[in-house]
Hints:
The chain is an alpha+beta fold and 202 residues long. The protein has one domain (56-200). It has four helices and 13 strands. The protein has helices at 2-15, 151-158, 161-169, 172-190, and strands at 17-20, 24-32, 38-46, 51-54, 56-72, 75-76, 79-80, 86-101, 106-109, 114-119, 123-132, 136-139, 195-200. Helix 1 (2-15) crosses helix 4. The longest helix has 19 residues, at 172-190. It is rod-shaped. The protein starts with a helix and ends with a strand.
Amino acid sequence: MKILKVLRAVVVGVAAIIVVVGVLAVTNVIPAAGLFNTSTETSDSQVITSVTEQEEVALLALGIQGVARSDSKGEIFGVEVPAGDRTTLIQYEFTGKVGIDGRDVIIDGGEDGEYLVTIPRFIFIGFSEPRFEDPIESNGAVSWLTPEIDETAMINTILSDSNQQQYVDQNVDALRSQAETFYRGIITGIEPTAQVTFEFTQ
């Protein structure tokens, strides 16, 4: 049906995001203050490696913040050493984007102005504006017996796939509501009298 083809084209057009890794060459000259002036030149060159067309639809932006904690205790021959502990705290915040892959959305119907929209599983699309405060450490008097805590591993855990899935699972109701609003708005924008129903994979 012609109207159905138009709707699908519009939905894909709205959802599509073109990601291009471009070519960038930057040179900065930074003068240093003082009696004898010097300059430092830095450069950053990037080459096109891929051009990817994506149709991910971000339905929600989640403001996420928290404090990650990691504890480590010193041991000698399996015996815990008093005052040999280490504790590291990292405060963080970022915006997490959750939504769907628009390529998997199915629109059926069109007869008598009735449409069925099937929404795929919700996914974590990505994050933006990440900010990690400087770690706060609390170490015992003989903490040198204990290996240092890996702060990079702590950050990777914060952004891990399991945590990303939790952000999705905790917001399923809001995601469903936003998906309905988004696709109903597109369809009724073309056919104002359309009756739109939804099915959700998740």
